[in-house]
Amino acid sequence: MAPQLPTADRPVNTRTRPIGRAASFAAAALAAFALAACDDTPKDPKSPPKEVKVKIADKTFTLELAMDAQTRFKGLSGRTEIPADRGMLFVFPDAQVTRQEFVMRDCPVDIDIIYLDGSMRITAWHEMKPEPPRADDEKKLSPPTDQFGRPIPNAPEWTWTNEKYEQRLKRYPSKFSAQYVIELKGGVAKPLNLKEGQKIEIDPGLKKLAK
Questions:
Q1: Domain for residue 189, yes or no?
Q2: % of the chain beyond a pLDDT of 70
Q3: CB 96, CB 6: distance < 8 Å
Q4: What distances in angstroms separate CA 10 from CA 42, 107, 151, one per listed residue?
Q5: Structural domain includes residue 5
Q6: For residue 77, is it within any domain?
Q7: Residues near 114 by Cβ (< 8 Å), separated by ≥ 6?
Q8: What is the pLDDT of residues 35-92, one digit of tens each?
Q9: Residue-by-residue DSSP string for 22-89
Q10: Is the separation of the CB atoms in 89 and 168 below 8 Å?
Q11: Whether the predicted pLDDT of 168 surpasses 80
Q12: Is residue 90 in a domain?
């Protein structure tokens, strides 16, 4: 899944927007692109690990890292299978910490999502369900636009979206500002008996490496 935006996957920052949610999300992601407990500790500040292990309740998960705008936008979109002990950890830099909304953009399998604030405490979690496949008129992609509806020149292709498709996607909100987002195989989160306010230990150094 991906943030949606103000910000996926999935991309209100992750994936937020009134005037055209798709345009707004992609524009935010484009701006981020331009600015450009875990047991794996980054050794090179310029090269974060590709995945980390995070313990949630009494289970340990290996999570792929989504540390930049393009990877966060893509999320787990297109995955047809997610192992029960794996998933993805989205990390937002301090400047992009806000209320998040993720959507199931081109995600054919169930996904559980957990939002965490900057102190690594759960703000909300949801069981996300696949959306109907894109109709023919939802397959053509267009570049993000500015506040006047004009296409943003030289926008990377990964920021292109279909407004009609984006508008119909269900939003899954974080309720409060979130800096970390965890996505797991659908059906895995409920047995963990997650509670809002519960802390999940994540290497605090990761947010310094996020872009």
A1: yes
A2: 78
A3: no
A4: 25, 10, 21
A5: no
A6: yes
A7: 56, 122, 125, 181, 182, 183, 184, 189, 194, 200
A8: 443 444 444 556 779 999 999 999 999 999 999 999 999 999 999 999 999 999 999 9
A9: HHHHHHHHHHHHH---B----SBTTB--SEEEEEETTEEEEEEEE-SHHHHHHTTTT-S---TTEEEE
A10: no
A11: yes
A12: yes
Cβ–Cβ under 8 Å, residues 118 and 197: no
Supply the CATH number for residue 47's domain.
2.60.120.1140
The answer on pLDDT for 9 being more than 90 is: no
Q: Three-class SS of residue 113?
A: strand
Residue for token digits 């996926």? 8
Tell me the whole-structure pTM to 2 decimals. 0.82
Q: How long, in residues, is the chain?
A: 211
- 3-state secondary structure at position 99: strand
Total structural domains in the chain?
Answer: 1
Q: Which residue range is the domain that position 198 belongs to? A: 21-209
